[in-house]
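User: Thanks for the earlier help. One more: Big-1 domain-containing protein. Can you show the sequence and predicted structure together?

Assistant: Of course, both are below.
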Amino acid sequence: MADACQVPRPTQMFPSLGAVFRQALTLLVLSGTVSTQKAPAYDPAPFNYIGTIDGMTLNTASGPLGGGTLTVNGFKITIPKNTLVTLPSITVAWPELFVNGQPNLPLLGSVSWEATVFGNVVAGQHIAGLVYITQEATQSLTGFITSINFTTGHFFVDNAVECVLNDPLGRYGHTYTTNPLWSVDPDNPSVRASTGFPICIPRNSTDPECPLTNRPVDTQGNYLSIFTYPDPARVVAGGLDPRIMAPLAVGDYIIFSGIKTSEGVLALYSLEANLGIRTAPGTKPAYITVESANYGIIDPNPNLETGETRAVALATDATTTVEWFAIDVDPCTGEESERQLVIAQGSGVAPVGKIVYRLGKVDASPATREVGFRYSSGTSPGPRGIVAGQFIQPIFDFIFPELITFGANEVPNQFDVIPFLALGSGPLELGNPLAAPLASPTIVGQLSPWPGNPVPAPTSCPPPSAVTSTTPTTTPSATPSSPPPAKDIITIVSASSRNQKGQTTTTVVASSNNPAAQLFMAITGVDNVAATAMTKQANGQFSLAISTKGKPSSVTVTSSLGGTPVTQAV
């Protein structure tokens, strides 16, 4: 007799069955030892993939905002209609990645093209929400420039790697138009010194927009790597001029990234030269660059830990505060509005000009596709079409909440709280810098199919032909029946400071009894901050948060109408 804990073999259980039937039954019983699952344990479920691109398809029937599929390390992902893909320097619609229906990824199949995809599995279908694509995503190369060809713009690093700036518009040197999707940033200095000052490659030995004389030399004729440009008001003919880019030179040490091409050269979309170039304090132009910018998605679920919204920037002028702001976009018109996050000042000690923004657990919702950084003193015209004094940065890292209660259900990626995905972002502007504008306006709407459940209510926009221009218009103000009083009464509603990891953020809310007033906030303490414009809220109050290295002793609020300044200790 079989042991009570032993499962009888099929032949013992059914001794009278034929051999063939017994064999089939044996396979059926044994198959019960393999665990299977037809659907996820919970739906929707999140996925976050970083991997190699195996294949891409395009739904050509859906026009310039059509979707398709993306296969990453064997996982086939649905790319919804209205998907905009973030590349190293620009953002493009999914169809812009194809030519004649085929993926336009140079050397695809012989070099590694990689994608980062955040999405959700909905009813068994992997649907993307955020997509980033680049060649060899972790590539970061370094070396010394050993030769430069002014005629072609090509240069060698360590006598080994031939490079060229992938510059379709010729911002930083010769134009290079072979692979425009993987270009340098045409609007923000992505070819720069470590401090953010724009760098160029001379188009010839006497290029007036990239003169070899725009960098000082030592007594031996060697280019200096640390120097400060003079106040533009004191620039003399042929002298150093901060309104012109600084030339890259043989011997410069660079950090660079790019794509391998069929021409055998590395086409660069990013170059940082190890140069400590600064601008005179308090003068224009001054420049900014951004090392990183992350946006934390907030969720009150106690099983989750939310990430911090933070950024790191560098400024050529460490004496002027720099505002970090989110860029909200109207889903129908595409009109942009700025939402201040925090103001901070660059470090006065090494690394001079570095600014670290940390919001801690402050909810900076809603998350935006892009954020901006701008000197409090404003912008000015820069060289070759660059706007000096600001930097617009796409968010490469949305930090979704992380599960901290092990064994609890994973929480889907919350795309519904990201407006540019759930509502849309207005008329499509092609990312390819060489592409002709669309013949008729096309509105970027909600992702479809939606990567989640339930589907958010879509935005109802007028027909594209009726969409108003994104250019702001000015409506003349009605003439008041009597002029406003010359002065007003200022009230500080609240003032607080919070120290985190050596940085103090001071937040002030204030009001004026005159609706025409503009309030300003100044800080007194270890790091003094001059009067900076506060942001007017919907309730009529003004608010501002400023970060400093040292702890402030007091804040002062002033008004454009001349009311008595109010000072309060913090």
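User: Great, one quick takeaway?

Assistant: The domain at 45-135 is CATH 2.40.50 (OB fold (Dihydrolipoamide Acetyltransferase, E2P)).
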